[in-house]
Every structure is written in C-alpha cells, then in structure tokens.
Amino acid sequence: NTLKLFNGRSPPYTACVLIELRLDYERQPFVSIFYKNSSTEPQPLYIPSCGTECPLRKMYTLYENILPVDWNFECKLTTLMMTYEEANIGAAMGILVIIITVMLLLSYVIMIYYRRRSYKNYVSYSQ
C-alpha cells in the first residue's frame, strides 16, 4: 500500500513481493516489482507514473516522501539485538531491581492481609 501497488484484496499466506534492481542496455539502473502467489511465474506490477520497469532516479523522486532520511536512526539496534557492550546494563539492572522490590512489597502486603484475616477467626478461651 505504501508503494501504491495494493489492489485491495488480502494476499494468500505464501504470497511475496519481489523487487529487482537491474541494469538496462545503457548500464542505467532500473527497478522492477513482481508479485508471486501460487502462480507459476511472478507477475510484474505496474508502478504508478512509471510502468513495469522504472528508472531508479525516477523511483527516488516518486517515493521520496517515504524514503528514510536519517539512516542512523532507522538502522539503530534495538536493546534485544545489542551485545553486552552496546546495551545499557545499568538501566536494565535498575528496572530489574524496581520490579523485584515491587514484587517483594506486594508479597509482604498480601502476607500481612491473610495473617490478620486468619486472627479474626480465632475465638479467645479466656472469655
């Protein structure tokens, strides 16, 4: 849908979109986009305002509003993908300590609640 190629129907589970970057006879790069589902051959998709084989420079101008500008931000690693040296271990340990503290306090409050509730059920023999 971002490339304005979506036809409005949900694709089957095994469908895929193929994007090819090739050179023409004049050694100029062009892009072709294909759709493949259960058919035998990939079907070429028509790129709006360009056709089935679109020069790379024209693709840049057509889709410049959706292309990333800040590649460092787009390609940065998430915390789960980082090595121990790259990740902020101090922040992770701080969050872990807070979670454990909250769980211990919650356990203590629940324990006190049940002890007081059980004392109310006892009958005093001194009466």
What is the structure about, briefly put?
By secondary structure, the chain is α+β, with helices and mostly antiparallel strands.
Strand content: 15-25%
How far apart the termini lie comes to 81 Å
* Radius of gyration over all CA atoms, rounded: 31 Å
Could you report the average pLDDT, rounded to the nearest whole number?
82
SSE map:
Blueprint lengths: L15 E8 L5 E8 L6 E2 L8 E3 H7 L8 H4 L14 H31 L8
Antiparallel strand pairs: 1-2, 2-3, 2-4
Structure description:
This protein has 127 residues and is α+β, with helices and mostly antiparallel strands. It has 2 domains: 16-69, no CATH class; 79-119. 33% of the residues lie in helices and 17% in strands. Strands 1, 2, 3 and 4 form a 4-stranded antiparallel beta sheet that branches.
Features of the shown structure:
127 residues, 3 helices, alpha+beta, 2 domains, elongated, 4-stranded antiparallel beta sheet
